[in-house]
Structure formats: structure tokens, C-alpha cells
Amino acid sequence: MVFRVHLIFRPRKEALQFLPEQGRRVNSEDDAWKELERLEALPNLGVLNGKPSFTSKLEFFRVSDAKSVYDGTDEVEIWFPSLPSNDREREAAIAVLTYQIEASDVQLNLKFKGFPFDAHELSVKLFLPKKHKDKMYELHCDPNMRVNSEGIKAREQGGQGILELKPDVKDGLFEWDVIPEKTELVRNENATGDQSGITMRIGIRRIPQHYVTKFLFRPGVIAALACVSTFIPSVEIGDRLALTFTILLTLTGINYTSSDSLPALPYSTALDEYHEACHYLVYGVIAHNISFFLYASRRSKLCAAEPTTNTAAGTVDPTMAACVASADAPCAAASEAADVAATVASRWCRMCGYNIVVDYWILLDLDDFVMSFIFAYWIYWNFRWFAIHK
């Protein structure tokens, strides 16, 4: 992280002799700077949770318009502890030390559990070393400070306060958006008696549109296509399984591709949760297809075991019985034989016909009904899941 620091302070006597007149600046390339460093006359900051390095020259100059609001109404000059009466000159001498710091190896507690709807708080802890504290310097962040000459303006004046993110910095965040209410400069809660420090917090939120389209919307639609297998007859289990397993392999490929967008994590993210739900949907469709196939096979075997002719049912065809009766027996006998045969055949036809009707309703109507329920629940679950994570 690279940022520019403005330290506004009243210089000690050693630094006061090097403080230039208004409008002039002393920088780290001047010869006088070596003497300032030797005397350790200027305060400097360290990074508590990282390694600091200076990436530009340091500047030391006088400022006359540093003001603040202490009572919430009128602007007054920056207040410092009063000096002895013989130090009138130093009373009005306010200086600025500005430089650019690059903080590397910053220890950030990033939590990707909500990815791709995750938000993070980037915290850089700045502290004033004890050697400066011993020389009567304290580090304090004044949220009401204004220095118009340096572009430091309060929020009510159209500025961004004492922590400002430049537009080019925001544009360089690409897939991230700054959270204004979580971006602040506050006194370090962990400051000890030997150090005084402040914490620079920058809240950022991921812009999830790319991940939603590529890794959520697409796999969600692909997983829902598994329900199309209901249009394939349930007895053709090979075609149904071919479709669902192809979808399952596609989802697995998308899952592996999306893992490249994140570092190795010891926990599951929201994206992993959604992909697992897609897999579970396909698993449910596979179980549904197998269940109805097994039921169809069982019912077809039971129907095949039923008698398919009157002879197999233990009687004779009614028309044959009528022919025999007309030649060898009275009409009443022929009619009785025909009634017996018709009764046996009717009993089998009602049983076999009932099975056919039941199988047709279960394998077609109930199959489609259950699959429609699975699809409808998937749509409902998606609406609920996105509502929770957004």
C-alpha cells in the first residue's frame, strides 16, 4: 500500500532553525536535511503491521492556514499545548512534514467466506516511535482539521477529511468499491505507554457482477437443465443418466476454474456453497430418475406375469365355447359356458388394466410432477440465497 502522510506539528528548537519562510520548502535532497536527520529533530512514523519504505523525497515547510473546529461552530487555528511566555515566536510556528510511504508485507485479516460478495477492512497501523515521544511529540488524528493550502478539506466543505482517497486510486481498485462509512483514520486502540499511534482503515467491497455471471448464473442454469431429463421416458435410463452425468462433469469443470480466482483457503466460501447446491440438485435428479426407472421395471415384470389369454387363465375363449355349445349342447349350456369364460377374462382384464393405468399415471404424471417440484424449489432457493448474500 502506497500513501502520502502529512504530519502537522510545532517543531522543536532544533528543527525550528531549519524551518524556511512561508512559501519555501526544505526537502530530503538539500544539505540541511542531513543535519535534521543527525539531530533527529523531525518526527517520523513507522508501520506497526508492515515494513515501511520511503518512495519519494521528504519535505519540511511552514504552514499558516492549519485550522480545526473544537466546539462544532467556528474554525480556529490548530491548538498545541501552550509554551512559556518567552517563546512567542514558536507559538505561531506550525510546520508540515510530508512524504510518501510504501507499506509492504502488511498483515491484513482478509476474510473470503462471503466471496464473491465479500467486503474487507484494510488496516495500516502507524505509530510514533518512542524516541520521538520522549521529545514531547504525540501522534493525534484530528477529524476536524482543515489545511486548504494542502487540499485537506472537511467533509462539510466538500472534501474527504483527513483521510482522502484520490480518484485515480479508486479507479485502480478495478473490481473493488470503497465503503465510505468504513474508511477512517482513528486513534490506535492498541497504543501503549511507549508508543502513540493511529489506524488507517479503508473499507472495500468486491464488485461481484463478473463472478455472478460466470460462476453463479451459468452453473445455476446448467444445473437446472438436469430437470429436462423428465422429457426422456423413464424406462430409457441410459439416456437420462447420460444427460445428468454430462451436466455433472460440466459443473465440476466450472468449480475447478473458479477456484483459480482465490488463494488456498481452509474454509468454504459462498461460491463453494452455491456450487455444492448445484451438485446436490443434479444428484437429486439422478436419484429421482433411478427411482422411477426401478419402479417402472418392477411394474412391467408384475404385469408380464399375469395371464395374457383366456386359455392361460384356465378357461376357453368365449366364441369357441359358443361354437362347441351349438354343436354338442343346448343353447342354454352354450350360453352358460360363454358367461363363465367371459367372467374369468373380465376379472383378469380389470386387474391388468388397473396396473396399466396406475403405471401410466405414476411414470408420466407423477414423474413430471416431482421433477416440476424439484425445479420450482431450485428457483425458490436461488431467490432466497441471493437475497441473503446481497
From TrEMBL:
Which molecular-function annotation in GO is an example for this chain?
Answer: transmembrane signaling receptor activity
Q: Which residues form the signal peptide?
A: none
Residues forming the Neurotransmitter-gated ion-channel transmembrane domain are 222-301
Q: Can you name a GO cellular component term?
A: membrane
Keyword Transmembrane among record annotations: yes
**Which is one Pfam family of this protein?**
Neur_chan_memb
Q: What is this protein called?
A: Neurotransmitter-gated ion-channel transmembrane domain-containing protein
Provenance organism: Chrysochromulina tobinii
